From TrEMBL, chain A:
UniProt protein name: Outer membrane protein beta-barrel domain-containing protein
Residue span(s) of domain Outer membrane protein beta-barrel: 10-203
Keywords, sorted A to Z: Signal
Residues making up the signal peptide according to the UniProt record: 1-22
Transmembrane segments: none
Pfam family, one: OMP_b-brl
From TrEMBL, chain B:
InterPro entries: DUF4136
Signal in keyword set: yes
Protein name stated in the entry: DUF4136 domain-containing protein
Annotated Pfam families: DUF4136
Signal peptide: 1-17
Start and end residues of each DUF4136 domain: 39-207
Length: 208, 211
């Protein structure tokens, strides 16, 4: 019981500390709809279709009015079906199949954002961002109805730019429009990477 | 302000829900697209050197390492299709007792255990269901001079067609399998699709001809 009390007290103190930081104007949340376009070998060798099925978000701590740092997370689903074709898979062996490729990525990254006009009371605030972390990948390939699956965690880095349009000069909430480039090494089925250029649209608001 | 944020979040959530989460590949293929056709051949075989073949009037039904012969309407449709395309490729059907160059086995395979199947496994499991004595080569074994199928787990049935080299069996003292075709996927045990399935195997094997 004594141990439980200590844990509860620690949790309450932690919540109070986070709450105090938030009230200081520190924490902000971004939620995005994410439209992803595969590039490079991902596009050329595996899935060329753009993916409209994605979400992303981050929780950022405002170090000052220009710099913020936090955690980024996302989820994207890629899918493509190729018409029936015959593949030469080994000496003397051929397989005729409709091939379907399906990839899901879930990046989890540390992120930093620089807002050059942050010291000015401007409704439109351009920003640039950088992030790096782990990309959790599920990769399935089907020959007809027969599939193989692979899961992996790989390095991912991200650079981005965009604008935040606040609801007013004194408001910390508004909409966000941006684009990011994802550098995502991956090696399977002749795919060298899962790089992509993503367009993001969403909302941001302070946590308080 | 909080009402506006709540509305924004609701709109965002609705937009996300509208995009759907994950597209399931198996929900987006038809029965025809579910099928795969795998062929293998012995690269040392000269298919032009064979002229005649024989084929049984029944199909071997292989299920969990046991087998029996059956001759239902679907089986007959597959046998007829094999005869049709063998003839189109220039091979002449003869009776089993007429010293044929090739023997054709047609097999219906059911495997209720999931696992890995390569061609070697396939023959380890089922080898001998066509007794070599059936072809007049009692005492000989079967040989597989090439690497087997790619690796996929069997969750449904399959049809396979094997081409056996009887012409050189005496010299090699074994019956080599020189070509195999495997059909897997939904709806293959159906009389109406048998011809198209066998045609697919022969179409992707242009070397299989004596012309």
């Amino acid at each position: 019981m004594k141990r439980m009390n200590i844990v509860l007290t620690a949790c309450i103190l932690l919540l109070a500390a986070v709450s105090a930081k938030a009230q200081e104007g520190g924490l902000k949340v971004d939620l995005y709809y994410n439209y992803s376009n595969p590039v490079g070998s991902f596009k050329n060798n595996y899935i060329s279709n753009s993916s409209p099925r994605g979400v992303a978000g981050d929780v950022m701590y405002n170090i000052n009015r220009q710099w913020s740092a936090g955690l980024y997370f996302g989820y994207q689903d890629y899918y493509q079906k190729y018409p029936r074709s015959t593949y030469h898979t080994a000496p003397g062996e051929d397989i005729s199949a409709v091939v379907s490729n399906s990839v899901q990525t879930a990046p989890f990254m540390a992120k930093g954002v620089f807002t050059p006009l942050g010291n000015k009371l401007s409704i439109v605030q351009p920003y640039i961002s950088a992030a790096a972390g782990v990309n959790f990948i599920t990769d399935k390939q089907y020959l007809g109805q027969f599939g193989t699956s692979n899961t992996a965690g790989r390095f991912i880095a991200q650079g981005g730019a965009g604008v935040q349009i606040n609801f007013g000069r004194l408001s910390d909430a508004g909409i966000t429009l941006g684009a990011v480039y994802n550098y995502a090494p991956y090696n399977r089925f002749g795919v060298g990477s899962l790089n992509s250029i993503d367009f993001q649209a969403g909302v941001h608001f302070p946590l308080r | 302000m909080s009402t506006r944020i709540l509305l924004l979040c609701t709109a965002f959530a609705a937009a996300v829900a509208g995009t759907g989460c994950t597209k399931q590949p198996l929900d987006h293929i038809s029965q025809d697209e579910s099928r795969i056709y795998i062929t293998n051949f012995d690269s040392t075989a000269n298919f032009k050197s064979y002229n005649t073949y024989t084929i049984s009037d029944s199909v071997a039904v292989i299920s969990d390492q046991s087998h029996k012969m059956e001759s239902g309407s679907t089986d007959q449709a597959y046998l007829a299709a094999v005869k049709k395309y063998m003839q189109q490729q220039g091979y002449t059907y003869v009776a089993r007792t007429a010293n044929p160059d090739l023997a054709v086995n047609v097999n219906r395979i059911y495997n209720t255990t999931s696992g890995v199947i390569s061609y070697g496994d396939y023959w380890d499991y089922y080898g001998g269901y066509w007794d070599p004595f059936y072809y007049g080569y009692g005492g000989y074994g079967y040989g597989i001079p090439y690497y087997g199928y790619s690796v996929y787990s069997i969750t449904e049935g399959a049809m396979s067609v094997d081409l056996l080299d009887l012409k050189n069996a005496a010299a090699k003292k074994e019956i080599n399998i020189i070509w195999t075709g495997l059909i897997r996927g939904s709806g293959i045990f159906n009389t109406s699709v048998a011809d198209a399935q066998v045609q697919a195997l022969f179409t992707q094997s242009p070397y299989l001809t004596n012309k």
